[in-house]
């Protein structure tokens, strides 16, 4: 993607999706800590997008958030992806993705879905044929009414994407 306007547009969509998911978790009592390169070292974002060395790849692989269950104290990684199609599979990750305990939240104009790295590794994916809605994702303890509300936010922001 060499078009700088398209690149900026995609970065903005990704940040909106991340913010929606961050707020969803916070509204459900989770502690959410920024972790990904966009927040920890934002000035590096544009300078490493086409580099393939080990350090640049490792930086780009950082999940967006470290999330803590406020009741159990358990920590986990969450990577948020915006996908207009709603499709996501293991081929969408970098080779040798290092965060094997990560959870992926896929935001599309019509849904919020979730899948674990281990499910991706076992060949499962997110696509239109199988709904992996975040409300049925067993790892997260999210209130169904808040999910409904945040899905409305997703539609407000992304529902009319060209």
Characteristic terms for this protein:
18% strand, 5 helices, alpha+beta, 5-stranded mixed sheet, 162 residues
Describe it.
The structure is a single chain. This protein has 162 residues and is of the alpha+beta class. It has helices at residues 4-27, 37-40, 54-61, 117-121, 144-158, and strands spanning 31-34, 65-68, 75-82, 102-108, 111-116. Strands 1-2-3-4-5 form a 5-stranded mixed sheet. Strand 2 and strand 3 form a beta hairpin. The mean pLDDT is 88.
**Major sheet: order of its strands?**
1-2-3-4-5
Distance between the termini: 18 Å
- Largest sheet entry: 5 strands, mixed
Q: Could you give the order of the helices and strands? A: HEHHEEEEHH
Strand content: 15-25%
Q: Kindly name the structural category.
A: alpha+beta
Number of helices: 5
Overall pLDDT level: 88
Helix content: 25-40%
Query: What ranges have pLDDT less than 50 throughout 5 or more consecutive residues?
Result: none
Shape: globular
